[in-house]
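Marked as duplicate of an earlier ticket. Keeping the data here for the record.
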Amino acid sequence: MRHTGFDVPLAILVMAALLSCGTEGNQESPPTGQAAGPPAGSPVTSHQVLWQADGSSPTRGPASIHNWPRLTGGTANCDLSQVDDPDTLPPHAPFGGNTTLHYIKAVCTGGSDGGRIQVVVDMEDRSLEGLGNFGFFWYQPSVSVATAMTLEVATAPSFSQLLRFNWATGAVGRRLIDGWNPITWQAGDHIGNVGGAAMNQTFTTFRILFNLQPNSSGTFYFSDFIYGYYEKPQINIWGENNFASVYTQLFPEARRRNLVGSYCPVTEMLKDPGRVVLEGGFTNDQLQEMVAAGWTIGGESTEGLNYIDFHTLESAAVDMDKHLADLQRLGYRRPIFWCYEDAKHNAALDAELAKRNVVAAYSGNIFSENTSRSLYGGLTNPYNLWAVSGDARSLTEIIAAIDHAVKYGGQLGLEWQRYDGDFPPVADYLVKLRAEGKIDIVTVEEMIARHGIRNGSSAEPPPVVPPPGPSPPVPPSALLPFDQVEQSYTQSPARFSGLWAQARTRTIRIALLGDSQETSPEGKGDVYVPRLQYEAWKRYQNVPETVVAGYHAYGGGAPFGDWLLRGAAAKPGASPTRIPADLLLPGIPAAAHAAPAGPQSVNGQWYGQLMILEPDARSLNPAAEIPATTQYFCTQGSVRAEIFAATHRQSGGILYKARPSDLVPSYSATATLEETAPLSLADATFILKSFTTAPLPFNGKRHLQLEILGSLNSALTDIIGARFKSDQCPHGIVIQDLSQGGLSTKEFLSAYRGAGLLFRMMAFDAAILHFGANDSGEGVTAESFRADTERLIARIRSWTNDPNFPIVLMSDPYRKRLTPAQEAEYARYPGALRAIAASDPNVLVINSRRLMDERGWKMAQPNRLNELLLDDVHYTPRGAVELAEAEMGALLGP
């Protein structure tokens, strides 16, 4: 029986298993048994070595690495060399790249299948008792190359008795990120113990293990293996987003205790505090009062919109310049640090800040890290200053984060966007630690200055530079009306035809984003969306998998079935999901499930999500005119299901049951397969995971049913949905509708800001954007529609981490009841999409407005229009069928 699984933590990556104990090794429980911080009298200590990377006394160096200089594992390999010139180290190297530490360079490739690399090293023979902090500095080229690093310290070269330590992309308190990482442990932090190893034993050997992803490459660096080091912790109080209670309540509490901090205002809201939602904003005079009391000012943005989802790199650079100029006009020194809105950034944005002499930035709090980052070696990752959100975390969690900083000598920012009742006890705790000499409470500038980054503002602010003027508006004549735009257009026809051609041999997944006309089965798209799928089947003669379906009932009447699927959700069933709505995608309703034990279950649940595979599409709306006598889905070989779920600090696992049956839906059908997925979901860090089941037996029955539940009576499991997959016939196209009634482009951007994790996990090959009807009803101009669409394209590409991700733009056909001015703008929407494709080679435009206008879908032919348009915007079944036929013909060819 073969099972597969993978994790996607809230960093941009696909999680690989590193530990020998299995795929979940990287997500084991956080370290326990934390030691107390060092005494107040000795706040800073220098390191000693257990192994030196230069081969000098007292320990062996490169020659002690087994199989030096080439390491292999699977198809992966790494070539090791000594770093002789510290100037060749990547930027922000520990201690400024001086010779305090020595480094090994590892140039690695994953090959076709990837593999595990093991760096095995002889070390100074000694126990781990009394070491204090120990570890090394590690440079990670990208978390997409290798997503974790494991250290095993053994009592003998056989590694039969060892302690295992781990840093991973999704691990709280030990999270690996791109760039330099100070890898820090103490006794008791191990996540695994093999052979009953004890701290007082003599350890002689260690090894570093990391898995290289297939077809990846990168250069790693690791330093001496060191111990006994410590840097006095530095705590910074900071905030952003201009909420009034920061001035009226938090600032007075801080001033009463002689505490200062740093603040990153949004300049347009500083000019107009009334724009701040919920409680209003503070004024510029009030912020100046905070500055006079010792608070320092960093950059944020002009409008409070993050630079990943709402900007291109070019527009983000323009916003940075305007924001910096506005801060100077408002009376502030040019800042040398930044607060990334929503904690979203990338290396390109960091480079833009560096051009503007901004040398550090907060961005760590979005990962729910709740811990500090070791300061030893300096600010090795200055654009990832570590923070915990004070007004989103409990008092216990905030105190734990501070204690973590005391233990490891860490840098920690405590962020308050609004005043919180826990601030006074936190402030009192900080004052107590400061009085004991255990921490320093600093501004960001003080921390930067103490750790060797001295570039930034001069003694006096530079002259105010007027911000660049707004880009000249696109002349209306530049955006052509629909009847002057081709039926389809792209700069790269071979790119798209080549992608569709791959559907002859593999599964091509397309995301469909739109409004009610694109929503199925519980929307107005119950003819249109299945018809798109049917048109794809006509060209490839196979459906390799179903869409991902969530927890709802459909099929057997209205709401009609989905493409090859029917669903049931009997009561008493699941509870509402605990996943925040903005982290999900429309069209896939998630739910929280317990084990089926009725009153003994935490939510009284008896029934789970029941999915029924219908290879003949028998539950579809008959008006779709799709024959129910054809087997669209291949059932000759094995059929499995891929189940998607999310972690929670109190989570059960996944229980699934195969219930083949002739009559459906039937919860009482005999379960021919019942298993609990080997997938751990109990984790305080928000992570999405998927699991592929064993083959699901039909047992000679007509229908394959799958019931999905939680595995525990005492805890809920947040299950997002599942899809059936054919092992035997993996080729064809599947279109997943991620749509919702009433959505416009702008509303999609606002409602689903954090859904990138789920979008990326579903592994799409392209996306169709089908908006326009609701945008026009909101009075959106063609120029604004273009800008909103470009923002949505940028959002999707940030989700996929692929700047060239293919996008198909389909315009909506004619709609009624627009004013003449609105109709004039709506007619230019296809021209707006055409303009995007003219500047982006990875965009294909389908001018559906013109395709259907030429078929009579227009006001000038009212009788024909009545055949195609049900009301002002929604399609009749005949209109849906004809539109799907025309669009798929333009997209895929005849």
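See parent ticket for discussion. DSSP finds 19 helices and 39 strands in the chain.
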